Amino acid sequence: MHIDAGAIERLVPMSAAIDALEAVLVAGLDPEAEPDRGVVDVPGGQLLMMPSATASYAGVKVATVTPGNADRGLPRIQGLYVLLDGETHTPLALLDGIALTSLRTPAVSGVAVRKLAVPDAGRLVVFGTGPQAWGHVEAVRAVRPGLRHV
Question: Under CATH, what is the fold of the domain 2-143?
Fold first, then answer.
């Protein structure tokens, strides 16, 4: 099954991603315990491999960073996530890796804001302009709906 960026955006609202990540972090998932990221220098850029596993699932995000793609009208960063069954290692899904990252990374920040930020904070400063910047605004708004200024 292939799950493209549009499907990820439609099926997983930011608030659900934040709740899911909070649940697995509270249950003991330690992102620092994941295997090291593999980085391979290739002509014109890098190939990145990020494996992960739990008792139920395993997977790997494969991404490329190709600075010259901007001149070609292509994204500088592209990627896919392969989700596998944890017991049989049967492939279950192929997901758009950039959409997944653009959801996951801000959702982790949403968990941090929910747990650590002043509850009545009304201002947010975001450094950056890419997809994750907008995702972070969405994540903070999901946990701090009273946010007045970005």
Answer: ornithine cyclodeaminase, domain 1 (3.30.1780)
